[in-house]
Structures are given as C-alpha cells and as structure tokens.
Design a protein that fits this description.
- This protein is mainly β and 448 residues long.
- It is 11% helix and 44% strand.
C-alpha cells in the first residue's frame, strides 16, 4: 500500500473508529458502547468542511488513473511535517465543474488554503512531486477534457495560493532529472499538428518558470502510445539518464525511442537516419524497458522467434535484453524464455543459443514446456505449472523437483533420465537460480 493510500485509509478509520481508554480508575459505562465514536477535533473540522462542499451540490470525483485515486488524500505539500488534505469534487452546475480543494492542518483544525478548478469530464490523475528541490510539492493535474483529449496543468504553491507553471495537451508525461542538475524536468508526449507524436522537454529557468526547452518527433503515434504504451525513466550503459518511450502498433509491433540530452537538447539515440523513426522495432511481447537484471542500467527487450521443432511445433520466442549507450550502440546482456501463459521465465545460458526449441503441452491441472535439442529432438528439460487438487503430490512425482510457488500453482522442473539432459541442461541449483515468476506490470504501474 502506498503512503497516500495508507493515509487515506487512516483517515477513513478515524472517521469510523475511536480510541479506547484504559488505566487506573477507568470505569466502563455500558451506555458508551452504543454512543457514536468521538473524532479527533481536526478531523471533525475537516469532515465539516467536506460536508459543506457536498451540501452545495458537489459530489466526490476521485482521479480515475495513476497512483493516487482516493477522493480525499493526505500529503505534506509544503514540507512542514504536517499533512495537508486534498479533496476532489465535481459540481455540474458550475462553469468549471471539477474542483480540487487543499486544506491545511493548523493545530487542532483544518482550513481551506486554496482551490484548483478545471473543465472537462473527469479528473484523470494527480501527482505530487518536488520538482525544483525547494521542499514544496508541485501539483500535476491531468484533466479529462474530452473523450480524446487530456490536458496537463502543473502548479506550484505557497501557503495561500497556487501559481500555474504549465498547461498543455498530453497523452503521457514524466517528471525526471534528465540533465542531472538536482531538479526534475518535465517530458510531455502529445500529438503534433500533423498527427505525429511529439515529445516536449520542459526545463526550469532562473526566474522559477518551467518552459519548453526543446522538442522532438517520436516514432509512435499517440494512439499507439495511449493503450499498451509505456514511458519509463532509465539509465544508459554509460550511466547517463534517459527516457524510454515504447508504443505498440496495430500489427502488435513494439517501437521504442530512447531519449536523452545532447547539448541541452532532447535527442533520440536509436533514430534511424534513413527512415526518421526508431530502429528498435520487434514483435510486442508484453515486456517493456526496465533494469531487468538489477545492475543499475536499463535493458530493452527484443523478441526473437525460436526455431520450430521437427513436427512444426509452435515457434515460441526468446527475449534478448540489450543495453544502449548514448551513441545508440547496444550490447546483449542476457536472454530469457518468457512463458506468459503460465507466468514464468527462464534465463537462458549462452550455450543454448540456436541449439534448442520448446514445445508447450497442456492437460487438466498441468501446463508443461519441454526444451529439446534441435539436432536430435531429444528433450533435456521440462518445466511444468501444476494447479488444482493434488498438485502437491504431483509436484514430487517421478524425478520432478519444485522450483517456484504461487498461491494456487506449483512450478516444477524435470530432467529426463538421459545423457543429453545430464550433459546439456542445468543442475537443480542452477535451474532454481535461473527460474523466476512473472509479476504482471499492469498490476504495478499506472499512467499519469
């Protein structure tokens, strides 16, 4: 649970529960068991302020996307150690129906500090980031202005009011210290005038403003980016920061741009000078750039078809994970076999390259992948996902051994009793080290 969700949950608890008294001389009055709980004074005041807004015709309108999706959120915006309350409403009768109220905590009470208003159908997202390093949170609001239009507004604030910094159409955005000056800049992805994708790079100025420093065309359209696309902050192989922009085409091809700074201007290190778009294109495999091997450098996945077996078995795919430098040159650091259907992957030894194929078979309560040598079609490893009743007994049947578990699934490996398996495959210890469960990224990430 994130800090903001925890805070909201605590606020809810405070609105529904009271503390217990205990100690010498305490006498329980049975009538008190039927009394309404008594709230701390400041939450009573806050509840009253929220109720007053609701009685004026408003309704709660929590953000619909991102990490902060509660109707009331607690966050220390000004760095004084006390959490402000941020509440989200819609009042259809007003010219600007969408409202964000900020209430400051003062001793045992709350007071309204300021309000942000917007037009549109919904508050799409809210994000709190100390972008300029002054100890105060900037507030980034995504408004759902229309079915196909989102508007981003970034505000800075003092104790009494907000000051707008940026207003722009957008599909996705990211705050990140790209120039390594200790401040977080802003990258906005939006549609250009001709429908092409554009990345705007905003940088801080000496007067405290946040303005567009440069922009660049990106390879994906906003339609390709908005659905399954991702924008990630990462690191090049030489340690420089970079932003990885991945879109998915209608033909299920993943297109990745890698953006960094050159001479203070935003640049794409994987641009193909002939086509004018990224050279990083491969079949989409539901994987995105990440620090996959936890070495501090971002790896970009490329999907490679495995050879088919002698009977024309389904061609499953390897994933090659590559690191890029600022010149766009890459080096392969590892390969994995990803079984998305059963939720696991296996790191592939270099000795296996171009020497095996894989066959997946299923039966009730069991899905297995058998790895076979291309030359002889002999199996040398089988990995199975066991579910249903009796899976614990089936997991140790024959020469199977357990390599992973989920709540209702047991994963086993099996080394066929043959010289091929003994000479070519891994040991039990090596298999357990090379095997991992897939954690679905859709459950871990969300858009701003």
């Amino acid at each position: 649970m994130t800090r903001h969700r925890l805070a909201a949950a605590l606020l809810l608890i405070l609105f529904t529960l009271s503390g217990c008294a205990n100690g010498p001389g305490f006498t329980l009055n049975p009538q008190e068991l039927y009394a309404l709980p008594k709230l701390p004074a400041k939450y009573t005041e806050l509840n009253g302020l929220l109720t007053e807004i609701l009685s004026g015709g408003a309704e709660y309108a929590a953000p619909t996307s991102g990490s902060n999706i509660q109707s009331v959120q607690l966050i220390d915006l000004n760095g004084d150690g006390r959490e402000e309350a941020v509440a989200f409403f819609r009042n259809p009768a007003d010219e600007k129906p969408l409202k964000i109220y900020i209430f400051s905590a003062e001793d045992d009470t709350y007071r309204q500090s300021f309000r942000i208003e917007g037009s549109g159908t919904a508050i799409y997202s809210i994000n709190y980031v100390d972008m300029n390093g002054d100890g105060r949170m900037e507030i980034a609001v995504g408004w759902k202005a229309a079915a196909e239009l989102q508007v981003l507004e970034v505000y800075t604030s003092d104790d009494e009011e907000t000051h707008p910094l940026v207003r722009t159409d957008y599909v996705k955005y990211l705050t990140f210290d790209l120039n390594e000056d200790g401040q977080q800049e802003l990258l906005v992805l939006r549609a250009g005038q001709n429908g092409d994708g554009v990345a705007d790079y905003y940088n801080w100025q000496d007067d405290g403003s946040l303005v567009t420093r440069s922009y660049i065309r990106i390879s994906s359209t906003m339609a390709e980016l908005s659905q399954q696309g991702r924008v990630r902050a990462g690191t090049l192989s030489n340690g420089e920061p970079a932003i990885y922009v991945s879109g998915v085409t209608d033909q299920s091809m993943a297109v990745t741009d890698i953006l960094t700074l050159r001479g203070g201007e935003i640049a794409n290190v994987v641009i193909d000078q002939t086509t004018g778009v990224s050279g990083e294109i491969s079949p989409f495999c539901s994987l995105y750039p990440s620090d996959f091997n936890s070495d501090g450098i971002t790896e970009t996945p490329r999907s490679i078809a495995l050879p088919t077996g002698p009977s024309g078995d389904t061609a499953y795919r390897l994933i090659e994970w590559r690191q890029f430098d600022r010149s766009g040159d890459s080096v392969s650091v590892l390969r994995t076999y990803h079984n998305l259907d059963d939720g696991w992957y296996l790191r592939i030894p270099d000795a296996w390259t171009n020497r095996f194929y894989a066959v997946r078979t299923t039966s009730p309560g069991e899905a297995s992948v058998t790895f076979c040598l291309r030359d002889s079609a002999q199996p040398f490893l089988r990995v199975s996902a066991l579910s249903g009743s009796g899976r614990d007994m089936r997991a140790v049947r024959g020469n199977r051994f357990i390599i992973g578990r989920r709540t209702e699934t047991i994963y086993t490996a099996e080394l066929p009793d043959s010289s091929v398996a003994r000479d070519f495959s891994m040991t039990e210890e090596e298999l357990r080290s090379a095997f991992s469960l897939i954690i679905r990224e859709d459950w871990l990430t969300s858009d701003n």
